[in-house]
Amino acid sequence: MNQYWQEISALTMRWVRRLSREKFSMLFTLVQPMLFWLIFFGNLFQRAADSQVTQAPNYISFLAAGVVVMTVLNNGLAGGVDLLFDKENGFLERLMSTPIHRTSVILSRFLFVMTITSLQVLVILAVAFLFGVQPATGLLGIAAILIIGMMFGVGLTAISMAMAFSVKSHGDFFSVLGFLSLPMIFLSSALVPLTAMPGWMSLLAQFNPMTWVIDAVRPLILSSWSEALPHVAMVVVVMIVFDALCLYGGAKAFRRAMG
Amino acid sequence: MDRAVAIDVSHLSKSYDGHLAVKDISFQVYAGEVFGLLGPNGAGKSTTLRTLITLLSPTSGCATIFGLDSVRDADRVRQLIGYVPQERAIDRFLTGREHLELLGALYHLRKDEARRRIGELLKLVELEAHADRPAKTYSGGMKRKLDIACGLLPNPNVLFLDEPTLGLDVQSRLKIWDYIRLLKTRGMTVVMTTNYLEEADQLCDRLAIIDGGVIKTIGSPLELKVGLGGDIVSLTLKETDKIPSLESALKGQPAIKAVRATSKGLDIRVESPEKALPIILECANRAGCSVEFIQYNRPRLDDVFLAHTGRRIEEVPASDGP
Fold first, then answer.
1. What is the ipTM of this complex?
2. What distance in Å separates the CA atoms of residue A140 and residue A114, rounded to the nearest whole number?
């Protein structure tokens, strides 16, 4: 157990060091979701969005949940990128030739991605707060948002890692990533409620796990525990299934790639 | 006297996507020797090496490292080996020291033990002054030195080097050769792949020539060269019409194994040049031939490769396996 922890903490520390040395990358990773989506998009559509439709005091407060989950989505789907580069330049092979538990590499990545995502979610909620969005369910609600976000993030990071271990080149990886991420956002309740969508989009959005996550996070920000709890309970069940499927696929891809 | 076997490869085959990269190869590596796998790109060298370091499972056959099976006992094998990959497996954002600290944790070294070994290795590969700079500022040679230090960190029983000097300048290459010689004097078993003939000749105690996934021959560089059947003395004669008479005069003489006429003279395969040269000159004198030029060639590894594969190593088209 001691050795296992020694491996995971050393590998996680590597990711932290890398990020701390890519200062521009860190800044843009942190700033992009709140700048582009929350501040620009939220304010741009402030008057265009009908509060009768969004069922929120203003568009930014409606959008906050969407931006939180979009951040989880983007970080999760990009979570495997560094492992892909490690695979391509032989660093992964070097790691795998050492007597480590095979899962340490993966777990360190989960730990790192989840920590960074949680910090980003907190920053987004803080910026939303500056625009007058006060989470209705308080600190406990914020904790619940982080846990739900992490549950979703685990599955997404597993998908990303499965892709990293399966694709032939990083060109393929980024093509698939680009193809996945925007439709996932548009076919969810991130930007508009399902009731305001064209029928076919609303139908597809109901099969998008992101919609379930947003539908649980949004009442935690806008309404109350009593309204949020059924959605939270539901999303926990959905996420357990989602994570199980993604982790199974990820483990399979990892075993195939690493023998 | 029987030598201790460090690695035993038995009827090993490995295929990828229906392509057989390594076909039924068997060889042994003795403890304390530098063993080379020599062959062109795509010959199956790296596949063999990756199987030995537990990263690939054989399709059939097996390999043991100090008696441990590379698949069944993979975890224990990994504790005995160090690996220097072909690519510069360097994280450009980490410093040299941080690379070694990371690997120290992955080999479960205690902090004080890791610190001591890292200090020694940085000194060995002459990177002490650059240890705290990010690896992206390193030259190709420095990155390779760091690679080797990483491979040596666990103080392995066997060090595997995949193309250790590929793409390096001459000076860095000679430096890496010095390290490998030093490791040999320390008793470490070293297995390396290379497609440089000179490197195999200079460093390896024994080598296997591998081509098309098959081992063509195994032996020490000297044995392989001697096995070709002796050195060659080439004569250039002033009067080419006297070639046939000199040829027949030389045939059957002691110390001369074979004589072959060329356009300007004769190629004479000899057992020992010291014994053969006086005989050759004597025969030429008696036959009234004026010798314009004498050239003496010791068979090179290049000739060995040619003899066993039917082509020169640099003529082989690159078709690297996965």
1. 0.86
2. 19
